[in-house]
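Incident review: delayed structure delivery

Summary: a single-chain prediction request sat in the queue longer than the usual turnaround. Root cause was a stuck worker, restarted by the on-call engineer. No data loss occurred. The affected request and its eventual output are reproduced below so the record is complete for anyone auditing the incident later.

Affected input:
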Amino acid sequence: ETDVLDTTEAGPRIIRGGAMRLVAFAAGTACSLAAAALLFRHLGVADTGRYVTVLSLVTIAIGMSDAGLTGLGVREYAAREGSNRDGCMRDLLGMRLVSTGFGVLAATVFAAAAGYGTAMVAGTALAGAAYLLLMIQKSLSIPLHVRLRLGWLATFQFLTQFLAAVVVAALVLADADLVAFLAAQIPVMLVLLAITVYLVRGQIPFRPRFSARAWRSMLSDVLALTVILALGVVYYRVITIFLSLLSTEDQTGYYGAAFRVVETLSAVPGLLAGSAFALLSRAARDDQERLGYALDRLTRAMMLVGIWVAISVVLGAPLAIEIVAGKDFLPSVEVLQYMGVALAATFVLFAWSMGLLAAREHKAMMIANGFALFVALAAGAA
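Output delivered after worker restart:
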């Protein structure tokens, strides 16, 4: 069977797949906004701040431990063949289980040491368990990326948000507490994992390999990606942690409501640029001219979409906050407008990051993310 990445059909498939993922995301976002409206009104300002703080903490911990293994897996699956590829996938799955498990443990310990309280500590552990299931599902879905079965990735994107909204609505009706909402993603992830296993059977090994010798051969790439992704995750979310430790619960809640809207929208550039990553990786291996052409087209498209999204957020911030969180969160509007401006640049950055990662230009990515973290820390400290 001819590999679709080596055919002229790859480009049209990426365009169609990107469009499907965007539509699925829009539909899923509508579900998420409805769920957020129920959630924020049910929890109130103070518990909303606690909820967002826990999710930010878990995301930082997982981001630092995940080391970009999904991106590395897609790149290596596209570049390798046969038993060499299968062995690499087993090693990556083993590394992901160990690193993500350590990240969940670190987040839980930090929550306890920071005096977040029993509910937040328990919620951190449960939210971390959901993220662990998500990381396993992402590892097993790598063949769908490389074979450009992007319709299924779009389906997963929608199901994640739709099922989460259903669970949140059920918990609101049941008058559940903060801990239950932080654990809400666990049943959702179990469903997605079961579907993924069915789709990729025979295309990727399900049994992880815990081999220190094999892991050492990938250590340089893993360490580089660990630094890159850790810097990226931390600089984007570190202000939430600053607020939780240094400001009031209300201020954290106002910031958290705006941040949740932007965090949801920030998934869009990753979805669109990620759809082309397998093609960029194959082109980086075989054809530099094709890589340059693909990256140029991707950058132009991402810039146009990013500008449109940023303008929409700035103009629609009052309505978005009123729908998502209610009148109690009106101070969140100005925060959301500031955040919305940055979204335009985020789209272009994702396109360039995919190109740099495909070409193994890790140093450039480290410099960019490191400088962004320095700015965030300096501004947050001030």
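Verification: The radius of gyration is 20 Å.
Action items: add queue-age alerting; document worker restart procedure.
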